[in-house]
Amino acid sequence: MNRKTVVCKFGGGTLSCREDFLRASRIISAKPERVIAVVSAVQGVTDRLVRSLEESRKAEGYAKVFSEEFCKTHKQVADIPEIDMLSAKLESALFNSYAGHSPRLSDYVLSFGERASAALLGHFLGKSCKVLDSESAGIASNGIYGNASCDVDKTREGFCAALDAAKASKNIVVTGFYGIDQNGNVNVFGRGGSDYSAGVITAVSGASRLELYKDVEGFLAADPKMVKSPRLLEELSFSEASELGYFGAKIIHPRTFDPISGANVCVQIRPVAKPEKVGTVIRERGEGMHVAAIASRKGASLVEIYGGGMVNSFGVAAEIFTRMARSHISVDAIATSQTNISFTIDQSSSLRASQALEALSLERPDVVWVFKVTDHQAMVSVVGGALSAESIARALLCLYRGKIGIKMTSYGASKISFSAVIDVKDEQKAVAALYSEFFSGVKSGRGNAARMAVPARAATKRKLKKAAT
């Protein structure tokens, strides 16, 4: 590329009305670099598209009703002919869903929010801008419906060709959220997948910076719904930010960093209301904090499997997790002992997990004696790029003092996070207690937190000794 390029991603929370699109166009136009803007759907539109698929299967006339609503919503931003064309195509797709549902059709329908957003932003940017949908941008996906991944090598080839064809345009607008498989079908990247799209486009375009414009200042050290005025995190590593995304921080999709790993890219979270301000800077290899943030995720189920036949038996864990995979169940945290395997799954999968384990216990009663699936669990996690043994000890002691029962703990080889499974009713209490333990009195910034997170060894040992008695 012959120009310095920056990728700017605008999420649905920043695109809700005409004024929001005008603001985004001003941010893009003010930059001296060539800008590739990646857009999400207008706020709330993807949820409405999901519901439209459900309703259109029930009533034949719903396709026309919803397509008119879709058209009206977007024409309130700008009355452009592209919206009429998209609404007509959407009506046809929803009518087809009445005749029969398929994952292919669902993904296609869900892509219309991003298509409309891209057309609207391109309208406000004017003649200096080229709008590319994922088809014309060459965003290649792997053919998995609902939660696809991008084929980065194929995308690089297709996207660079599209950029070369649009070299006369200073700015480019690209649809986020979906790619196109080898058969020309739409594959969406899952909820929040426009962040992932932005990561892919940053990687294949050779951009040096990815700016994510959000309706918040940046990453916070805890959920503000659980902790009053948590500190702003000014710096994070890719690993820390990804872990926080996995635990439900809606600032960024955890897969955003996969395609840009090793590319020497700086990621910036910027508040759209103050676009000149950088809230959080995310680098591949940050300084690494002992404790960067406290995160939590509800909606988990704890699976516990006991069996004396597990001792010195080969392939028991493999058999259990193979059964989970066959039932399309994603396993999160895992803990094992000689006679027990415990792990967490999404609560929506708990019935399928019970059925799979029931079948296994009948086939292998020598291995699986009993199992239990407990719903309404939460995972609370201490996240940091350089967690120490003392930080983990402090976390456990803090939960003990708060009389919060721990069902399972997990501490992976990456040492990015230490997690505890607790009853969901204790989630807010646990997050508040851990935040107070590690961040009480600490201002925004990185260095203060890193120093604060390492307590005096003697004081920690005294606390642990007292707790044990």
Describe this structure in words.
By secondary structure, this protein is α/β, with parallel strands linked by helices. The chain is 40% helix and 21% strand. It is built from 16 helices and 16 strands. The protein has an eight-stranded mixed beta sheet with strand order 3-4-2-1-7-9-10-8, sandwiched between helices. The chain has a six-stranded antiparallel beta sheet with strand order 12-13-11-14-16-15. Strand 1, helix 1 and strand 2 form a beta-alpha-beta unit. It is globular.
Question: What's this, in brief?
Answer:
The chain is an alpha/beta fold and 469 residues long.
Question: Any descriptors?
Answer:
Carbamate kinase; alpha/beta; 6-stranded antiparallel sheet; VC0802-like; 469 residues; globular; 8-stranded mixed sheet
